[in-house]
Amino acid sequence: MNKNEFYYDLPKELIAQTPIEPRDASRLLVYDRATDTVTHRHFCDLTDILKSGDMLVINNTRTLPARITGEKTDTGAKITFLLHKRIDANTWETLCRPAKRAKKGTKLVFAPDMTGEIVDEGEAGARTVKFDYDGVFEQILYRIGDMPLPHYIHEELKDKERYQTVYASKNGSSATPTAGLHFTDRLINELKAKGVEFATVLLHVGLGTFLPVKTDTLEDHKMHSEYYMLDQATADKINAAKREGRRVIAVGTTTVRVLETCADDNGVLHAGSGETNIFIYPPYKFKAVDSLITNFHLPESTLIMLVSALIGREKTLEIYKTAVDEGYRFFSFGDACAFL
Prior knowledge:
alpha/beta; QueA-like; Thrombin, subunit H; 2 domains; nine-stranded mixed beta sheet; six-stranded antiparallel beta barrel; 7 helices; 20% helix; globular
């Protein structure tokens, strides 16, 4: 398939620049695959939409304020780094700009208690940085860093926690699994009271989530890898739901990547951890995931391709056109859709 088969027109004014309050007041487009019907609801209506016994699977990764700026010790010139992947306790793979100033051996000051040195150069602004700091790295990061908002968001984020899910607990992501941003503690408690079950997986979202598909054909695209973890208790819990015929509903494409990575050809999940570079696009056959709650994704992105694998490319583009016509808010801080 060609990437241009997943293109759609989106007016710029529909790209959400700020999160809506409260979180679960966002709109929710619901597509019922059994009846081939679309309804327009709000996220807080999930308690009416989901059924007792449904299994909601969430990703509990926590996003680091991974955009930091350092000053070169020799010239004072500023370079901004986006932390991508931790190599060891002190060393990170990063993307930086302006890259022309960031040569191997460059030493920088990020804060009075944190310095760094570029120890390796890669392509397209990729740099490996070794940090030296006094204290706890994450605590310094939360003090000096900014949230790595996508390039299409131009408004300043006043509250860093608003780019976290309410259940985020495991530090490590360079971007937030945004489908989960719509949940509130109140909504989660209401869903549990109704009999909806929750299961938690982990996938640390990398910067590759923002990277475009550069090849014309999908088969030639090399997917980025991300760290995942599925423990045995969670695998057992989801497998039980599958055996009992209950729906397994993934919250976000990152959750889908974990579940489909860990499922065998019979749809049985096996505990594990490591790096996954699974690329899901039509005509992929899902093994573990029955349904999906997610946001609206960029044209020609790997994420809209994943959605198309679940409900079909033509139906996906049809639903996206409906969302545009209805004035839904798009992308990270936008509205949500449920494919049930």
